[in-house]
Design goal:
The chain is mainly α. The chain has 7 helices and 2 strands.
């Protein structure tokens, strides 16, 4: 894969994925959607009609899952009450936005011809993104990279550790996926801003 590019006269950006690459991105995005939705707060049963309409029933404490805690950090460090109130009013909307972004990635890949079931590995998937969809992809790729980095325990300056792992080590393979997502993100940003 060469990453995302923009042709001279087009406002859109383009990428060609192998079926394997496209299915990998789709799978990661689907896992993120599942994580975001499985941890969502229960629907409101508030007596206040305005509160029920605006659904201010979000959680007031940081998520237990380290990935979710990284995606939704406390807004006010050192002030648990303010952080809890902020989280209660914003986390539900933020979760929905992140889930929609990941779902947009899935929809884009499927609209481009990615089959529902893995199959023809020789199949090439041509993706075309307008500016708005490209920005959604950028946000989704950021979330996917944060999720993978958190699960793997990636830290700044630890590249030597990852490169020292044998090729068959699943952690090294997952780290290569993390780096590849970074490559996709970098080429997408460059293509959009060029």
């Amino acid at each position: 894969m060469t990453g995302f590019v923009r042709h001279r006269r087009s406002k859109h950006v383009f990428a060609t994925f192998t079926a394997f690459e496209a299915d990998l991105v789709r799978s990661l995005a689907a896992q993120l959607v599942e994580l975001l939705r499985n941890e969502a707060a229960a629907p409101s049963s508030a007596g206040d009609p305005l509160e029920a309409l605006l659904d201010f029933t979000g959680p007031t404490t940081a998520p237990d899952d380290p990935v979710l805690a990284r995606l939704f950090p406390d807004a006010y460090r050192g002030d648990d009450e303010a952080a809890g109130e902020f989280r209660r009013f914003t986390e539900g909307t933020l979760r929905d936005g992140k889930a929609r972004a990941a779902a947009t990635v899935i929809d884009t890949l499927e609209d481009a011809g990615l089959p529902a079931e893995p199959g023809d590995e020789e199949l090439m998937i041509d993706v075309e993104l307008d500016r708005e969809t490209a920005e959604v992809w950028m946000r989704a790729l950021t979330d996917l990279r944060l999720a993978l980095a958190t699960r793997l325990g990636v830290e700044e300056g630890d590249e030597d550790y990852w490169y020292s792992l044998p090729d068959e080590d699943p952690r090294g393979q997952a780290h290569r996926i993390y780096e590849w997502l970074g490559f996709l993100q970098e080429t997408l940003v460059h293509a959009v801003t060029a």
